[in-house]
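$ ./design --mode recover --in tokens.txt
reading tokens...
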């Protein structure tokens, strides 16, 4: 799709869509997933209002 911005979809442990992640460097993570087959796991570190602090690491 021309002009679209890729996103990182986040799914909970039951496979339900939980939301999307954006952070500095997220396009590099998308490249690793799409072109290198790397799988990642995100862990919530802290929640403050509507802001979630998340750790993203290769699985």
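writing sequence...
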């Amino acid at each position: 799709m021309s002009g679209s911005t890729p996103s990182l979809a986040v799914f909970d442990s039951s496979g339900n869509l939980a939301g999307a992640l954006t952070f500095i460097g997220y396009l590099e993570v998308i490249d690793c997933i799409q072109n290198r087959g790397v799988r990642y796991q995100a862990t919530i570190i802290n929640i403050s209002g509507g802001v979630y602090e998340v750790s993203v690491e290769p699985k």
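exit 0
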